[in-house]
């Protein structure tokens, strides 16, 4: 199984200044990229209190193309809007080295880095019981 949960607060710059027209165009570009993906799981882009947010979550049988596309969408959003920040939690049960671990992709100032998860890992026994 491939599990993912994430969100991004989309921002043009990390500073307080913002060009509303430019931000709107950037959000439209993110929306077009989302529409290229098709429809699976939770994939949501909306404005909340005047700020754009991207949310996504899903559980696939295996990572495959869709899993790669989700990670690419996360990274692509950071490249388009370098003030963006957010988190993407991933767990690939089939990964022989990290199948029992969640990985966290952190976006800060549009840059994505990958980190160990200190909260839900190891999945067994933290969130799941071992198989008998």
Structural summary, described in words:
This protein is of the alpha+beta class and 132 residues long. It has one domain: Alpha-Beta Plaits. It is 30% helix and 34% strand. The chain has three helices and six strands; from the N terminus they run βαββαβββα. Strands 2-3-1-4-5-6 form a six-stranded antiparallel beta sheet, covered by helices on one side.
Q: What portion of residues belong to β-strands?
A: 25-35%
**Uncertain spans, ≥5 residues at pLDDT below 50?**
none
Shape: elongated
**What are the secondary-structure elements, in order, as H or E?**
EHEEHEEEH
Which secondary-structure class do the elements indicate?
alpha+beta
Oligomer: single chain
Give the second-level CATH assignment, the architecture.
2-Layer Sandwich
Q: Give the biggest sheet.
A: 6 strands, antiparallel
Examine the coordinates and then state which fold CATH places here, giving the name of the CATH topology.
Answer: Alpha-Beta Plaits
Work out the helicity level.
Answer: 25-40%
Alpha-carbon distance between the two ends? 19 Å
CATH class: Alpha Beta
Give the count of structural domains. 1
How many individual β-strands? Answer: 6
Q: How many DSSP H or I helices? A: 3
Q: What is the average of the pLDDT values? A: 92
Give the C-alpha Rg: 16 Å
Short summary:
InterPro entries: Imm7. It comes from Amycolatopsis minnesotensis. The protein contains 3 helices and 6 strands.
């Amino acid at each position: 199984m491939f599990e993912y949960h994430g969100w991004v607060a989309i921002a043009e710059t990390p500073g307080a200044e913002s060009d509303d027209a430019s931000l709107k165009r950037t959000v439209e570009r993110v929306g077009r990229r989302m529409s290229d993906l098709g429809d699976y799981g939770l994939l949501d882009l909306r404005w909340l209190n005047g700020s754009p947010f991207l949310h996504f979550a899903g559980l696939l049988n295996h990572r495959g193309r869709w899993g790669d596309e989700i990670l690419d969408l996360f990274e692509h959003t950071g490249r388009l809007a370098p003030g963006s920040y957010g988190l993407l939690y991933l767990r690939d049960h089939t990964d022989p080295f990290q199948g029992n671990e969640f990985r966290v992709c952190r976006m800060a100032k549009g840059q994505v880095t990958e980190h160990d998860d200190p909260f839900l890992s190891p999945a067994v026994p933290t969130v799941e019981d071992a198989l008998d």
